[in-house]
Structure of TIM barrel protein:
Amino acid sequence: MQIEKYKIADNNDKQIAAHKRAFGFVSEGVSNVEEMLQKLKDFQVAIPSWALGTGGTRFGRFSGGGEPRNLEEKIEDIGLLHALNQSSGAISLHIPWDIPENYANIKALAAQNGLRFDAMNSNTFQDQPGQEHSYKFGSLQHVDKAVRQQAIDHNIEVIRHGIELGSDSLTVWLADGSSFPGQLNFRKAHQHTLEGLQEIYKALPDNWKMFVEYKAFEPNFYSMTVGDWGQSFLYANKLGDKAYTLVDLGHHLPNANIEQIVALLLGEGKLGGFHFNDSKYGDDDLTVGSINPYQLFLIFNELVEGMDARGMNHATGLGWMIDASHNIKDPLEDLLQSVEAIKIAYAQALLVDTKALQQAQADNDIVKAQEILQGAYRTDVRPLVAEARLRSGGALNPLSVYRSEKVREQLIKSRGQKAVSTGL
Ligand code: LRH
Ligand code: MN
């Protein structure tokens, strides 16, 4: 389903006067507003192909209807998001949930929708029909060499799909670990996993990156073989220059200081990218910025300061991806909210007077440092984010266009109430 540009323009016309007033007010206090707007326009967030349908938990799944039934419809749905917010110009595929039947057709359809292919994701946490060896007791860590080799071969196959589509990175998340003391020899599991990642690393084209995603628990509940940033950092360092860590916000133990982890990994040049979401307890995969927006701002504050210190381009220097699961909300509305929350946190971080903050830190003037930081966080930057979107041809208010155009109703009419999407 496409949304015609004139429909977006009509909706903008109704809101332009109020927007110009709000934008005029906030931009008065911004010294480099044009530079900031350009950075906001350039900042694109990749949408996960596995989060366009209704997610579920082991307790139940409540289908919302009109879900994409194949990769083509997933690309169309992300194209619709991108038409509205001009900030979702990439799709991240998960194999085998999204194996392209015809690379040329899929590339052409993605291009028509203004989308590029971001990181490819492998899957050695589920057994596929007809699969020779089970991943029940892990994949790259497995005690059986045949299972490890099967997992290595799968990741190399995922790289091959990515090369055909024009992707340039692979995310490896391993569900591997143990759920009971005594179940696993940690050192052997670590060594097997390193050897497996090294085989996969050898298959990477020169311009590719490998993201090693860590997670504290689930689906294993005693140990995870890539359980925290330190273990991921260890693997990435041992693998080589093309290997980086990937920070999924929901993969930490309660109260972990994620912004400090980000600052350290960035400082070491080993931060590869993000899976943005939010959570209150575990890997809840909730809407970005819906539970702890201040933490998201603090993370972007470290990113802007750290990337500028390394002369990195904000838009292309790291992998910006969402990883969420929509159990009770419309997946497309949820993703529109998540992209907006990411852009707001980025805009607030761009407002931080880094020089003044560093001076306050040098003076141990904690109160002044807090006021500088919270001053940026308490600035309503939404008119700046909206202005960047408007200048990119997007909607001032994507959600209101999505609803006024009755997109979900139309998707249910064309795809049916029972349509189910592959993914989580
Ligand atoms: C694991 C994870 C990983 C994906 C999966 C869909 O929790 O975050 O990034 O492969 O979700
Ligand atoms: Mn993830």
User: Anything to note?
Assistant: The domain at 44-351 is CATH 3.20.20.150 (TIM Barrel). The chain is about 50% helix and 10% strand. The first helix runs from residue 5 to 28. The mean pLDDT is 97.
